[in-house]
Design brief:
Elements (H helix, E strand, L loop, with lengths): L10 E6 L7 E3 L4 E3 L14 H9 L7 H14 L5 H21 L2 H20 L3 H18 L13 H4 L7
Antiparallel strand pairs: 1-2, 2-3
Helix pairs in contact: 1-3, 1-4, 2-4, 3-5, 4-5
């Protein structure tokens, strides 16, 4: 099974069509879809940092590393012990991704891609999810510190990447 609307950043899981419906709101199409629907061409996974770097480097939405990070995310979502990390990443990741996209520093992104993301992708490919998750968390913390993210008050941060993700539509 391929990617579904459920794991797309445009998909608002908590904005239901009605209290009796499973359908959730898609910010891209501005209508409601079932979470299990096959993802469209505007699909953006909740791999914020990797997605932003791939976007900046023009690697496409289906390159091998991005697919592997989606696999890691999907694997982590199935494990209760990863939930606190994912919850924090869903707050910090969009902020970092937004900074990366706004800075559009291809040299920095290429360095991160080659020196950090590719080795982590190799760990994922080898099914070493725990090691990959730890390394990705370390990368996320490093980037958060680089971009001045207040990790203590992360709950108060605005999810700017998700709210501004329609920036290319106009």
């Amino acid at each position: 099974m391929g990617d579904t609307c459920y794991s797309c950043t445009y998909f608002e899981l908590y904005e239901r069509k009605s209290s009796y419906s499973d359908d959730c709101y898609c910010e891209w199409y501005r209508t409601y879809y079932h979470p299990g629907s096959e993802a469209c061409t505007h699909y953006r996974s909740r791999t914020y940092i990797v997605s932003a770097i791939c976007e900046i480097l023009e690697l496409g939405n289906d390159n091998e590393e991005l697919k592997l990070f989606r696999e890691l995310r999907n694997n982590m979502e199935k494990t209760e012990s990863y939930k606190p990390y994912l919850d924090e990443y869903d707050k910090v990741g969009p902020y970092i991704a937004n900074k990366l996209v706004n800075d559009n520093d291809k040299k920095l992104c290429k360095k991160i891609y080659d020196n950090k993301l590719k080795p982590i992708a190799k760990m994922i490919k080898e099914k070493n999810y725990m090691k990959a998750a730890i390394n990705y968390e370390n990368l996320s913390i490093m980037l958060a510190l680089e971009f001045g993210v207040d990790l203590v008050n992360v709950d108060k941060m605005e999810n700017s990447y998700c709210k501004k993700k329609n920036r290319k539509k106009a």
